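Hi support team,

I've been running sequence recovery on a batch of backbones for a student project. Most finish fine, but this one hangs at about 90% for roughly twenty minutes before it completes. I'm not sure whether the input is malformed or the queue is just slow. I've pasted the structure tokens below so you can try to reproduce it. Let me know if you need the job ID as well.

Thanks,
M.K.
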């Protein structure tokens, strides 16, 4: 006896449900945070994409998140590469705030990764020049004099100093900064040749930020835009790092692999807990 059409449709539907497999997602928290910082994102991913394996790092929590950026990059890369080996089908990477910049450097320095989609959630990708949030950690820090601390051999032992990008003291920035100019391939190193290779592997780059962030300064840094010497924001496509394709931004953009998302009304400490942001701007990019 042949099965009835409705039975075939039911069996087909069940097969489709069983065959859906979402790629694992790796979450990297922000500065002075911990693993629990990303709980809302992790829970929502599992609710909307049942069966998804989600990894949230518990490294560099609290004050240890002020450790030098390259130190964080190397340690977290070891974890990401182990996860990649366990999931040869590929993984997705979501980095929030400072964690997004750490994540970007991992992708560059370790081209053996198998990250498919990288979502940078309100991260200072082009640097930081604002002290509002820094007063929590450096109570007497002033915007105009922060370079005196950060652009020194001692100052560079803190993560924030590694991506402090003072538009009025660029000579000191290039002289002392041991992280961002190298991650941007603005300064040559023995790693320069592989940085493009690692970043260009991405199938999709999602850059999320907005004008009401009030911490990432300028907020366009989350989109690789940044101040010139007059504190006028220069968009990503007019930056040298893009025009000269220093680490692969232009390549990704011209092949249609970059999505830039601007969302108003979200402050910096809400991006990773706002369900609307998560549902609209994160979940759709996780297959």
């Amino acid at each position: 006896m042949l099965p009835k059409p409705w039975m075939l449709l039911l069996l087909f539907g069940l097969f489709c449900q069983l065959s859906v497999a979402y790629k694992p997602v790796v979450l990297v928290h922000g500065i002075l945070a911990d693993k629990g910082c990303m709980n809302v994102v992790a829970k929502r991913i599992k609710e909307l994409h049942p069966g998804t394996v989600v990894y949230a790092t518990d490294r560099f929590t609290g004050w240890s998140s002020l450790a030098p950026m390259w130190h964080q990059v190397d340690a977290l890369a070891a974890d990401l590469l182990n996860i990649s080996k366990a999931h040869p089908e590929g993984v997705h990477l979501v980095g929030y705030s400072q964690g997004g910049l750490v994540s970007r450097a991992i992708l560059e320095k370790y081209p053996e990764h198998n990250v498919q989609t990288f979502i940078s959630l309100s991260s200072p990708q082009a640097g930081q020049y604002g002290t509002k949030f820094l007063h929590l950690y450096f109570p007497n820090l002033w915007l105009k004099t922060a370079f005196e601390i950060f652009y020194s051999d001692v100052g560079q032992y803190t993560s924030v100093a590694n991506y402090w990008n003072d538009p009025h003291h660029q000579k000191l920035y290039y002289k002392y900064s041991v992280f961002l100019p190298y991650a941007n391939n603005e300064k040559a190193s023995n790693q320069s040749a592989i940085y493009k290779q690692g970043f260009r592997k991405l199938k999709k780059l999602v850059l999320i930020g907005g004008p009401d962030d009030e911490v990432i300064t300028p907020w366009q840094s989350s989109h690789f835009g940044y101040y010139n010497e007059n504190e006028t924001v220069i968009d990503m496509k007019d930056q040298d790092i893009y025009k000269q394709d220093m680490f692969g931004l232009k390549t990704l953009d011209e092949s249609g692999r970059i999505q830039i998302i601007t969302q108003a009304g979200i402050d910096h400490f809400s991006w990773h807990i706002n369900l609307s942001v998560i549902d609209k701007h994160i979940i759709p990019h996780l297959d």
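--
Follow-up from support: It reproduced on our side and the slowdown came from queue contention, not your input. The chain has a mean pLDDT of 92. No action needed from you.
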